[in-house]
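Batch 3, record 17
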Amino acid sequence: MQPAIRLFPSDNILVLVRSLDAGDEVLIEGAVHILKASLGLGHKIAAKKIAIGDRILKYGAPIGSATAEIQPGEHVHLHNMKSDYLPTFTLDKGCEFHKNP
Amino acid sequence: MTPPILTSNAFLRSDGRKGIRNIVTVVYLVECAHHVSREIQTPFRDQGVHLLGFSGCYPNEYSFRMLRSLCTHPNVGAVLLVSLGCEGFNRKGLLEAVRATGRPAGLLVIQQAGGTRSTIRSGRDWVSKTLRELESTPRTTMALNELVVGTVCGGSDGTSGITANPAIGRAFDRLVSEEACCIFEETGELIGCEQIMVSRAVTPELGRILDESVVKAARYYATLGHGSFAPGNADGGLTTQEEKSMGAYSKSGSSPISGLIKPGDVPRKGGLYLLDVVPDGEVRFGFPNINDNAEIAELIACGSHVILFATGRGSVVGSAISPVIKVCANPETFLNLPEDMDVNAGRILEGESNLDQVGDEIHGLIKRIADGQPTASESLNHQEFVLGYKSFEPVGPTCHPTYQ
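Prediction for the assembled complex:
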């Protein structure tokens, strides 16, 4: 079976369902991609080319945005994406919760 | 068109709701009556007699409402209340509420019944007699649009969000399309999902209320020092908070959200509902839910006939009153704890199944369990129950726009 699955039709990432080693091949939409590094179960790889600022979609929902251009088959993680959510929330000294615009 | 049938083995209650079990509950009204109640219940624990109650001595509107909702739940056939005698709980009010439904209801007050031994004897006699009475409870047909299903996740790991949770979401989508009522909860685990959740609300006003409920949860957890706004567990492949939350949120499926309810509110129409479990007002009484069973009890108080419980690490719990179906996310956990699990959603990772197939398997299992088949936790006599102090403001009409 494919080592990476698409959780929702509109997702632009795939999720690994088993751990893979560097050099392993993953087939994405007919093209073979070779992993540059070992990746564990649960990690994400790009299902297509993703531009800087594009939303990363998992479960059909945005889980953050790309901070670098990402090629198909490339690992998608802290080094090339960020949360769109965390910066909008801050805690002040009194532990009051603020949702910023 | 006739709605699809769930089971022909249901129990009709006087309020028109139907149950899939005919449980006798033995209910302690303060911790001081817990031992006596447990002694009454234990000999009958594998005959559908369950123990629940409230430990506190000080009265609390929420806990009264919870016990009233649970004691008049359609899966409950009869209720025995056990009071010490001097606690603050409104035992008369609860007894009257249960009697008003026509259910057999008893009250034993230990201080007036001659003490521990006498109360245990009287209680066991009452349970024996009542179990015989319940044997003749008439059975009726129950349609899928009369079913209420709750979902919770506990003992989650990196596999939960890609197997068990979304598979439950598929089962929810199918149930909602069949006009069943589906409830998801834990706004504290929805932090980061509020925008997409808002877009699923059936009205913009409801969307605003859903958003506020998550903001409330975030503030509550932050004050308790428990909420974490740090990125999720990167080792397991999770990159952001919203990704982590989406894993839990995927249990809700993709149906429109029909309303927001609070513990004890029973939805009046089919659809998907968010249960807001975080108390209103200033932060008091501690954590909103001290463990998974507190959330399960609240889902049941909202009328859930059955609970879908997603677990990766391997929770073993069940519950008083309503069967708990354990959907195991991790294939290794399923191999380690086979006797405690009902569904192996981890097969998805091994290519032996997919989300739709596991969703359909869950749907089929709900029907068999409604017919009387025990879940793994039921057959092991797991009947966990916990109830603490909380305070809530009632919901307004904007919380359930589909009722009009």
